[in-house]
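Q: Two folds, back to back.
A: First:
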Amino acid sequence: MPCTPVEILKVAEKLSQSSDEAELRASISRSYYCAYHSCLNDRGITDTNTWVGGRGGIHQKLIDEYMHDGNKAIGYMLDNLKVKRTIADYKLTESLEKNDAQAMLRSVHRLLEKIHSS
């Protein structure tokens, strides 16, 4: 059954209420993927398998698309969210807290507002 970015965001919001660090990390990761898929939708990209190449993979290519077409703010926002997601998913020795997950959600909401206003 297909899923939407908003549904992913709802999961992230639920996870952000936890005091368990693994769930907070999952919240940060899901928040990023809500933003990522929202940006793909904004660009009309439905098949990332045909949209490959360039440095840094598909995620970086999407960021670069925004950086080079006059939507640098969205590009910077998505890049910053990606950095936070990388910490949550790969840097397990760095502590994350509830306020980190909630700050990530606020950032994602700002990105979504920016997408819808452009």
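A: Second:
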Amino acid sequence: MKNLRELLSQVYSESQVDRLMVGIDHLIQSYKQKVILDPLQLTEKDVLMITYGDQVYQKGESKLQSLKKFLDNNLSHQISLVHLLPFYPYSSDDGFSVIDYYEVNEDMGDWNDIDSLAQSYSLMFDGVINHISQESDWLKGYLANLPEYQGYFKEVDPNEDFSQVTRPRTSPVFHEFTDTDGKPRYLWTTFSKDQVDLNYETPELFLQVLDVMLFYLSNGAKLIRLDAIGFMWKEKGSTCIHLPQAHALIQVMRSVLEKVYPDVVLISETNVPHKENITYFGNGHNEAKMVYNFTLPPLLAFSLLSESTTKFKEWVSSLVLPSDQVCFFNFTASHDGVGVRPVQGILTDDELNVLVDSVKHNNGFISYKTNPDGSESPYELNCNYKSLLKGVDNNAAFGFQRFILSQAVMLCMPGLPALYFHSLVGSENYVEGVKQTGRNRTINREKLDFQVLDKELNDNASERTKVLTRLKQLIQIRSSYSCFNPFAPFSIPEASDGLLCIQRTSIDGQTVIKCVFNFTSHGIDNPWVGGEDVLTGEAAPQQIAPLSFAWIK
């Protein structure tokens, strides 16, 4: 616990540290009795699915039960981990304005349903701990001046200069609330009025958040996603993102959680330029065990649409990890759009417009953020990934091939692969949903009728079936080779522009596979003939066909 005290001392006063140490010890002793020590050792057999708890629905059962049925029926041999996006009661943002961290949204099911899922799949919960809903008891108690909630939120002077603060949105830094005495309270709101930032300067608040995370471990979570964690500490006159105190508190979180469940995986969610993003690995042993590979989705899409692999190869070659105990969380699509901040410094404005133009030509949307000088710039492409890859000519056939290739690249990248539900079932832009909600992100958040989806997946001619079948084949083959272990090394052999080779080597050095991809619309000679293509069981092809690939052993 000495290290814990030192970490806390970087953030809090001596008397505050004393209080925290007592509180933390109490939490550890309490939750040690409640957490089942079921080991989690990630291998090449592990692939994660990102999903909402109410992603599919059917009359007569809870939505979480329908989700489990979908997984059991279609993906039980391919998916071992499930990221359940926030399944708590919420007031906005499709779950990310949490009203009560300790409850399951009754519209989805209950804790028994979560437990049932946890019996078959390793679960990742969302720690939405940068902010909480304005409808939460925490904020209501704060505005009612109840002593136990004082200090839970960050009050600001509305006349203060906030020009240095990094803004992920165009909304104000703070919003005005009124307490029960009629007094105005100006509270920090990084994302929206209904997402009120928690104040980690208050030790009691930090203890409460630790309790939430330990509660998740006691209810089946093995992985916890730290949502928007880079914004958790505010300092006057600073950017209020990635501050040293935030890193220190993440280190405390990991230390405390590991004392209860040693295999817990903390995953940092910081949608920022790559160099900033990877700081959340810490020294490779003390912060996040995984970091979202946010550069992958936009850079991969650009490379496919431009038919050039030069920038992608440069970037992948630069991926360095601080230890062999951490890895990237690789994905191409999620419940959010495709963030473009991570390719700042990699893509020029003209190159970024390749993506923007494709989004617009495929009925997608662009979301903007406010810059320190008051200007606005794109921060997110709101477009289904498969729809995005159709390009400006809206070519469905090319879009399909590019999409399958993109998922194959992601499956070969060093780290843990994560596929969004809508990627697995070949969904496209849900434009009607955006019209209904008025929110750009709805475009990739359609909820599906279980029976309708099941019927489509039983039709061998349907687009959904073609996508799911191909992805299942790739996942199944990948799981047979130890070189695809998340922590196994990789290299990027030289290849002509348009061609990408990711070489994966098993940790023991015994298995080597060259994953060769053609990003172009014309055939390219294969420099690595002579081996076997494990995808076909035949000799490696002399030429890699347009928008095709081979995994050569």
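Q: And?
A: The chain has a mean pLDDT of 97.
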